[in-house]
Amino acid sequence: MKIFLLIADGLGDRPSKLLNDMTPLEAANKPNLNKMAYHGMVGLIDPIKPGIIPGSDTSHLNYLGYDPMKYYTGRGPFEALGTGLKLEPGDIAFRANFATVDGEFVVRDRRAGRIRKDTDKLANSLNMEIDGVKIMFKEGTEHRGALVLRGKDLSPEVSENDPHHEGLKVKEVIPLKKEAEMTARILNEFFIRSHEILNSHPVNENRVKLGEPPANAILFRGGGIVPDIPKFRDLHGFSGGFVAAVALVSGICTLAGLKNYTPPGVTGSLDTNIEAKLNAGLDALKNEDFVIVNVKGTDIAGHDGDPVAKMKFIERIDQAIGKVLLNRMDDVLFCFTGDHSTPATYKEHSSDPVPILIYYKGSREDRIENFGESQCRLGTLRLRGNDLMEVLKSHAGKAEKFGA
Amino acid sequence: MKIFLLIADGLGDRPSKLLNDMTPLEAANKPNLNKMAYHGMVGLIDPIKPGIIPGSDTSHLNYLGYDPMKYYTGRGPFEALGTGLKLEPGDIAFRANFATVDGEFVVRDRRAGRIRKDTDKLANSLNMEIDGVKIMFKEGTEHRGALVLRGKDLSPEVSENDPHHEGLKVKEVIPLKKEAEMTARILNEFFIRSHEILNSHPVNENRVKLGEPPANAILFRGGGIVPDIPKFRDLHGFSGGFVAAVALVSGICTLAGLKNYTPPGVTGSLDTNIEAKLNAGLDALKNEDFVIVNVKGTDIAGHDGDPVAKMKFIERIDQAIGKVLLNRMDDVLFCFTGDHSTPATYKEHSSDPVPILIYYKGSREDRIENFGESQCRLGTLRLRGNDLMEVLKSHAGKAEKFGA
Questions:
Q1: Would an 8 Å CB–CB cutoff place A118 in contact with chain B?
Q2: What is each CA distance from B291 to A55, A84, B42, in whole angstroms?
Q3: Residue-level pLDDT at B82
Q4: How confident is the model at residue B104, as a pLDDT?
Q5: Which chain A residues touch B21 with a CB distance below 8 Å?
Q6: Is the confidence at residue A188, as pLDDT, over 80?
Q7: Distance in angstroms (rounded) separating the CA atoms of residues B274 and A37
Q8: Of B61, B70, B216, B374, most Cβ neighbours within 10 A?
């Protein structure tokens, strides 16, 4: 059996007055999920372990079988991977912003007027080499980007240059350990050189003409080393693919060696084309034994504090499942869960365990009527994130018996 | 309080159309188990952990308090123990078959016509010493047996001689590591010598006369070293006994130092005398603080894909409990569970968690009406296999407080 793992980012929630004291998942009209919950197994999953508030990166790592205590080296490497940069273990990566500084290096706009256009041209101008270290810059969404250093004797043990507030001077990068002295020096040198390049770049000259703040500085933070993680195929014995528009998630999947099946045009937003993502997932399963598909709208609505938008996004997921998946699952194990809870009443990730559903032909049947936080408490499954792959593999007939 | 642990091998299951979408345990008429479930605690147990498909050996080890990741060294040692051979830590043991080979050592019948008679005589003729290494052979059920090497500098890192298919030549044993060279040489020598002895053995001369294939070769596989495990009494502070007809289970119990109370005549089959086993368990508790009793029929019906036979076997267990146990439990904690699930709709071990019931006078009462997979989801207990002994000990008043 093949495995289709659908992650609704930030799915778990708490009851909301706006939804008659139900959670968005409980309140949603979702006949297809309910049908699978009735004829499948449900439960709750702690993405890391009880009481740990997961990030999307640490929980996705854990779900895929990689202990985040061992492999999570900071947000920089994973976001950088998500920009599409082909990174190598040992690279040092930072999250970065295009920003606007004045002649004294005081930050005037941390997001360079939320610049959107031509950031690729700016980014391309910043690839350089300093003292034998290769420096790569790649633009992300809006003002965001990733800064990567590749070379010998580099260390992630350096401070950030991002002062995190406007009106403050860009900070000098300081080595936090002796072995990071060279890395700090190169980063400071990069900041100066990049400032010079950006200041005289035609894109910025044009922005100044139009009265827009020039994107004339790179602020970086969240540095870490790209970890050397085993490939998914070596870990689990079969190949896999992913569909994800969010940089952080696609970065992790890429690092794990999963193949990217994300179709053009889908986004990590509330208005993404969910059907296109599910179809891409099914396409992936023509070549792969496993696919993970991430939809992000649930998390966004949670952060926005909008339980109704979250409920409606879940309803759109359900409709897409009904249209795309439900009648094409003869030889597919389907698992639906979230990577963490983002309660709309809380607007942040929380440690609340997340509803999970596993459905395949012939499974145990929990026969609950309404798939959601409350009824999932009564289900067969009570998992931690690092159980997930083992559970999916064993039910899909992809695991060996331990013993005789 | 004394502890009576009854294991219905392969108890857990999935719903079956033949049983109106119930599992065999749910569908069974089992007033006595239901009574204890109502007045006791129920739940689900993952014999190893979620997603791991247990073998009977690994799960029994885990249930008895022995981490199988540490102590499980392959099937050979545990099956060999189950034949009644008194093994010592460091012995190298294999599962073995009597087989029929021709003059070119090509396997003609892997089971020597499923020989049943006089295998003890054949086995006795094979005990020998080669280069100071003691070799023991002990017959098991039908064509099966166990081959054990005892001596210095032995290693389990050798290949098998069993080609696993008829029409193929017996394989030469190859050392898989340098330190296993002597072991491989002795095993090859044993094969030749045993072939000569068996070929001219009166039992085989008689078989040939009757037109039956001679049991003139020993095929061996699944080799491992007998692990040095602490004794049950040292681990838990009290003595224990076991009742089990299945070699694999009795082997583990023997290694743990549990005393064998298995009565003569009981089997590991669907037609075993369950009452005799339960009576033997009660007899054991006259001397011991703990007894584990294994009945195998549930697993056999599961492997046979026969949910009705499984249901009926459970009904026989229930009747035997009513007759033998129910009125003799004043000072006994009774626990009923399985060592894994063997869904009759799947015919193999699965990772589905297993229903469990703990009953003693004065326990918490879960008051479920029908002991089975569905209602056990709602119970007090949600365990992993390595929790079991601690849970039983604490409820039986055999555990110390951790702290003050």
A1: no
A2: 47, 61, 20
A3: 76
A4: 95
A5: 365
A6: yes
A7: 38
A8: B61
B51 touches chain A (CB under 8 A): yes
Q: Which of A393, A379, A373 is nearest to A5 (CA)?
A: A393
**Cα(A315)–Cα(A329) distance, integer angstroms:** 20
Residue A399: closest CA among chain B residues belongs to which residue?
B53
Residue B26 near chain A (CB below 8 Å): no
Write the CATH number of the domain with boundaries B2-72+230-395: 3.40.720.10
The two tokens of residue B50 are 């979620």
Higher-pLDDT residue of A142, B190: B190
* A44 in B contact zone (CB under 8 Å): no
- Answer whether A403 sits within 8 Å of B72, measured CB to CB: yes
Chain B interface test: which of A235, A333, A364 (most B C-beta within 10 Å): A364
Q: Which residues of B touch A399 (CB under 8 A)?
A: 51-53, 351
> CA neighbours within 13 Å on the CB side: how many for B287?
11
CA atoms of A299 and A305, how far apart (whole Å): 10
pLDDT of residue A226: 94
Three-state DSSP class for residue B287: helix
Verdict on whether the full-model pTM lies above 0.95 = no
Whether chain A has a CB inside 8 Å of the CB on B147: the answer is no
Computed on alpha carbons and rounded to an integer, the radius of gyration of chain B in Å comes to: 23
CA-to-CA distance for B55 and B47, rounded, in angstroms?
A: 9
Write the ipTM. 0.87
Candidates B23, B52, B79, B341: best to mutate against A (most CBs of A within 10 A) is B52
Q: Distance between CA atoms of B226 and B77, rounded to whole angstroms? A: 5
Helix axes A56-63, A388-395, angle to 10 degrees: 40
- pLDDT tens digit sequence for A60-79: 999 999 999 999 998 899 88
Q: Is A164 left (phi over 0), alpha (psi -120 to 50) or beta?
A: left
Q: Which two structure tokens, joined as six digits, stand for A121?
A: 């041209």
Q: What is the pLDDT at residue B246?
A: 86
Residues in a beta bridge with A256: none
Q: B21, B72, B377: best mutation site toward chain A, by most A Cβ within 10 Å?
A: B377
The pLDDT value recorded for residue B251 is 87
At position A348, the amino acid (one-letter code) is E
Which chain B residues contact residue A403 at CB under 8 A? 54-59, 68, 72, 75
- Nearest Cα of chain A lies from the Cα of B335 at a distance, in angstroms, of 20
Count of beta carbons in the 10 Å neighbourhood of residue A265: 9
pLDDT of residue A82: 77
Q: What residue segments make up the domains of chain A, in order of their start? A: 2-72+229-395, 79-225
B55 vs A390, A393, A403: nearest CB: A403
* The pLDDT of residue A86: 83
Query: Tokens at residue A278, please?
Result: 């599910």
Spacing of C-alpha A57 from chain mean position: 5
Stretches where chain B sits below pLDDT 70 are none
Q: Does B373 touch chain A (CB under 8 A)?
A: yes
Q: What is the pLDDT of residue B86?
A: 83
CB atoms under 10 Å from CB of B320, counted, come to 21
Check if B351 contacts A (Cβ < 8 Å). yes
| Whether the predicted pLDDT of A354 surpasses 90 | yes
